[in-house]
Amino acid sequence: MRTILTLFLLLGALTMPTAATAATxxxxxxxxxxxxxxxxxxxxxxxxxxxxxxRLYVHAGSTYETPRExxxxxxxxxxxxxxxxxxxxxxxxxxxxxxxxxxxxxxxxDYTVYLTDMPAAQWKLGMEVLKDMAFHPTLDPAELESxxxxxxxxxxxxxxxxxxxxxxxxxxxxxxxxxxxxxxxGLRETIKSFTADDIxxxxxxxxxxxxxxxAVVGNVNPAEALAEAxxxxxxxxxxxxxxxxxxIDAEKLLAQPLTLIDGGKADGGKAAAPASAKSEKAAKPxxxxxxxxxxxxxxxxxxxxxxxVKIEPGPWNKVYLGxxxxxxxxxxxxxxxxxxxxxxxxxxRTSLLxxxxxxxxxxxxxxxxxxxxxxxxxxxxxxxxxxxxxxxAFWTALTVDLASLxxxxxxxxxxERAKLNLEDDMFRAKETLPGLASKLxxxxxxxxxxxxxxxxxxxxxVTPATLQDLISRWLxxxxxxxxxxxxEKSQTPDLAATLAKAWPAPARAGSDAxxxxxxxxxxxxxxxxxxxLILMPDATLPYTAVDMVFSGGNALLPADRQGLASLxxxxxxxxxLPTPQAAGAKAxxxxxxxxxxxxxxxxxxxxxxxxxxxGRQTFSLALRQPSRFNDDMFALLGQVLTAPAFADAEVxxxxxxxxxxxxxxxxxxxxxxxxxLTPFLFPGHTYGYYHLGMPEAxxxxxxxxxxxxxxxxxxxxxxMAVCGQYDRxxxxxxxxxxxxxxxxxxxxxxxxxxxxxxxxxHLPGRNQAHLMLVFPTAPLKSDDTPGLELMQAILSGxxxxxxxxLRDEQGLxxxxxxMNWQSEKAGFMIFYIGTEPGKLEQATQGFKDVIAxxxxxxxxxxxxxxxxxxxxxxxxxxxxxxGSRSSEAAVLTSxxxxxxxxKQVVDKAAKLDAEALRALARKYLKVEGAYTVRVLP
Length: 937
Prior knowledge:
By secondary structure, the chain is α+β, with helices and mostly antiparallel strands. It is built from 34 helices and 24 strands. The strands form five sheets. Strands 1-2-6-3-5-4 form a six-stranded mixed sheet, sandwiched between helices. It has a six-stranded mixed sheet with strand order 14-15-19-16-18-17. Strands 9-13-10-12-11 form a five-stranded mixed sheet, with helices on both faces.
């Protein structure tokens, strides 16, 4: 359940008995008020940032729908953006974004949530907009017909994603006969059938104050927030009673009756359409739901004590395999226990399945397991991605392991590590106001605040005996569903026969207060010899983020070594050699060195992480850890930099992983487009390198190549930025002990642009086409950068010019946006849309029409204000996390920019007028000079 835990609340039951924790300022308790109409108001003051996050939860999602209404919750979520009684079309998003806020909504199985993240001074506007969206949508019939095309495009986009497609198959098979078997986004035929009156009827039945929660978190006055909530929501009336939903008995959900396809391979029946891209698949709900027997009272389908196995060939490069079992919902006491079991099996790199099949046997590219807990039922979900020629060996071994699985496979240390990391995931969500608002609101909405304490208690009470009971009770072959998405031309083994032999089903089924990184607190310390240390104290949470950025990366590579820097980065953190003379390593207990599994365990035991990555002109390492482990993690960092093992077996593993990542990326339309974009734009230049390289070249790299690259890289100048809680003197001491550079920083010349203007890429078997118009602009240090950022903000967003024109007005696609990319030597702006192949010409003309208006007319003042406020709001939202601040500081300083560079860009953009933006559009947005990149089915 690691994906679910980000939704949970930790208010004080989670304690860390350390000095760092003791020093953390205590947050005031949330204020809970139930209005006379039953609507609950939760207010949590938090003055860390000049922001406020608001959430309005409605107890209505896809499981509330009748079969004829499949997808109506999601359609309503779309339609609230198309105009309200108080705001015409486009004004909902425009009002929020021009105030510097962020607006969105999400539909899940058991609820819909409307959200705004606002500058603190504008929280009242955010609350008013939430009320307007939920209670006063206009639901114009013409707009509904237009939006249906957008939603159908979204559905098609989901079908093109193997991960989405796999989840929807598993959902339909595992939860067959329950409301959770249907896709959140709905079906083509139901989506097309909806009328405005259908949606109004749905609202009348489900959008009642007694079924709602308003959460307000941030820099607000609680009394004022409650008074405003009472003013806006207090007079709303209920017109129906609410009955708590009945839990679904997961032990009665057995596999669907087995049918045969593909020459005798098992098939579980017709798959449901993919869920909404906005759906929260990892929701952890539970509590009141209005009863609707036509939607929620269906009995589970008749069971057969046989596993379900479905094979679906498709246009994939890899096999995407899903395995799932029904599980109890969130309200069950076993839910946190199953979270521990799922984490032990596939929660991280120390897990049993990862160690066995990814690390040791090297049969998969990735493997993971999660416990998905919904309001009334759940699903244990295991996924793996692998090459088709490894499927037989993997499946044979996995079925044997599952059949013989015992809690004795997990040590006491394994179990405690899983508990720590699950607990830690919950605690870290408090780092940002949106994260805190979602946790507080979600927990209160479904379980009450005490539910979090109960969850943690259940987590901590897990023992080996508990795990054995869970394995015996829930991991049963008669409840197993399997789906494999396979490459069309691959030979697929008989998975059903292998499963039946290794794990036969039984004959009968049954149940046995400080602001973040304030400028006057930040220190920049020159350590000499090309070493810079930046200290950014923040005592809000007992965590530390460290980013170390070297000059170098791809800039150190010749053209025939593309991908080597990325390979070195991944291999760098896969083990160390002994460092018997290093005092820090001795104190941390790692002087003898660490192999890859020990290194993963070392980090997991500390709820910490150490990663490395290579960029076009940089090479970075990032540490994230609870502050009490700072000394241990700095010791590990020092050992990684000075004594990386680069073991033959690990380099070989990472080489395989990198080739697999290339293939997986090219299975996704946008992954394919962006992988080939800069090589197309800048041929022969470092900017045009394939970041992961080409598969045939990567397969030739050996240990000597990796060591040779690292010998160059470690000599480059570096910058280290540390943000969070830390001992200042200790950090300075650690930094001084790290290697001192002795080489000049890598440098690059400006790239030449490709003379060819068009690139067509192909992904057969997909529904949608993807179009990018790419306009050359200016490097990051250009005086035009503030204007380009402002232009991008005005063009993108739900109230942006592109969205309004191509999606709202013409219904050409689900995603329409603009992106601004700038680096030291070049820059470009992208106009992007995903649409139907037959609408590419219309989409291209739509882009041209927007550009023509930008050339001809000055932007209205409202558009300028919206863009400027959006830039400022985005800046603060993006700077909440410790890691975002440390990373920004290290990257900017390493490239010669001031620490305040990004804020200066925002401030300069705020001073630009409409004429400056028109001049900028005429200068850079030239259709005749644009590059066209298309991904075609």
